[in-house]
Amino acid sequence: MSLTGHFFSPAVFVMAPRSCDKLSAAGKVAFLAMREYIRYADARGVDQMRKDGMQVVTNVDKQKVQAAFQPAYVEYARKYGRANIDATKAVGAAR
Fold this sequence. Notes:
Blueprint: H1 17-21, H2 25-51, H3 62-68, H4 70-80, H5 82-94
């Protein structure tokens, strides 16, 4: 497995910043706690896969990966709109 910076979780929660700002103090704490738990579970899962014998590549040339996905970006831009693709990429770049 190569750690390319992509994220997978069967429990994804997406919220617009404007809506997130409206959460109560307790809601904001819960939201941040869930993000931390996902990071913990992700790291623990990778550690377990290593223990089970999976080779995990951490030094990934991300520019090479992005170049390989360029044809998919072109297709997705046609299907979903260039602005949506650019917005999604901007979120990833902000991390």
